[in-house]
């Protein structure tokens, strides 16, 4: 690590701390030449393997941009998109691999997007999963409705058990 002040080629680590979310390490360093201190933040790199075989660094911004198109005209804020991109990155990092296939990123987007906005989810899924006909849309909508009904039944059961008096 070069000193940002005098460009000396070495530095000494004075203090190391893990970030709150555990995804990075903050190191306080001191230059042995000019004795000035500076901070570095270290994160594990995450690479995306594209269909062509080329690799590029993972970018939350690319996730947000791709989903933004599906969310046009929907009640989804920029903060919602940033949070979705963060969730996707956390999911991918938890897999423990340094290289992620682009297809896996699309799969990781679908779950959080479905929770955020069902219409945006259908738009994204129709392109990502290459829907060819109305039947594909109907099948996806049927799955969404079944999951919503199942969740509603589970919520009702949980609410009924919460209403029972304690014995």
UniProtKB/TrEMBL annotation:
<keyword id="KW-0067">ATP-binding</keyword>
<dbReference type="InterPro" id="IPR055173">
    <property type="entry name" value="NrdR-like_N"/>
</dbReference>
<dbReference type="GO" id="GO:0008270">
    <property type="term" value="F:zinc ion binding"/>
</dbReference>
<keyword id="KW-0804">Transcription</keyword>
<dbReference type="InterPro" id="IPR005144">
    <property type="entry name" value="ATP-cone_dom"/>
</dbReference>
<dbReference type="Pfam" id="PF22811">
    <property type="entry name" value="Zn_ribbon_NrdR"/>
</dbReference>
<dbReference type="InterPro" id="IPR003796">
    <property type="entry name" value="RNR_NrdR-like"/>
</dbReference>
<keyword id="KW-0805">Transcription regulation</keyword>
<keyword id="KW-0863">Zinc-finger</keyword>
<feature type="zinc finger region">
    <location>
        <begin position="3"/>
        <end position="34"/>
    </location>
</feature>
<keyword id="KW-0238">DNA-binding</keyword>
<comment type="similarity">
    <text>Belongs to the NrdR family.</text>
</comment>
<comment type="function">
    <text>Negatively regulates transcription of bacterial ribonucleotide reductase nrd genes and operons by binding to NrdR-boxes.</text>
</comment>
<keyword id="KW-0479">Metal-binding</keyword>
<keyword id="KW-0678">Repressor</keyword>
<dbReference type="GO" id="GO:0003677">
    <property type="term" value="F:DNA binding"/>
</dbReference>
<feature type="domain" description="ATP-cone">
    <location>
        <begin position="46"/>
        <end position="136"/>
    </location>
</feature>
<protein>
    <recommendedName>
        <fullName>Transcriptional repressor NrdR</fullName>
    </recommendedName>
</protein>
<keyword id="KW-0862">Zinc</keyword>
<dbReference type="GO" id="GO:0005524">
    <property type="term" value="F:ATP binding"/>
</dbReference>
<dbReference type="Pfam" id="PF03477">
    <property type="entry name" value="ATP-cone"/>
</dbReference>
<keyword id="KW-0547">Nucleotide-binding</keyword>
<dbReference type="GO" id="GO:0045892">
    <property type="term" value="P:negative regulation of DNA-templated transcription"/>
</dbReference>
């Amino acid at each position: 690590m070069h000193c940002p002040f005098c460009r000396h080629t070495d530095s000494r680590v004075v203090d190391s701390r893990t970030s709150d979310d555990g995804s990075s390490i903050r190191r306080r360093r001191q230059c042995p030449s000019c004795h000035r201190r500076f901070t570095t933040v270290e994160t594990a790199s995450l690479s995306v393997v594209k269909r062509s075989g080329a690799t590029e660094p993972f970018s939350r911004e690319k996730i947000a941009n791709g989903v933004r198109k599906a969310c046009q005209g929907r009640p989804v804020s920029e903060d919602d998109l940033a949070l979705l991109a963060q969730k996707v990155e956390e999911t991918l990092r938890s897999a423990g691999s340094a290289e992620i296939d682009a297809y896996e990123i699309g799969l990781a987007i679908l779950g959080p997007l479905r929770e955020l906005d069902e219409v945006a989810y259908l738009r994204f899924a129709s392109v990502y999963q290459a829907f060819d006909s109305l039947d594909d849309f109907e099948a996806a909508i049927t799955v969404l409705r079944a999951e919503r009904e199942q969740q509603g039944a589970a919520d009702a059961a949980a609410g009924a058990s919460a209403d029972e008096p304690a014995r």
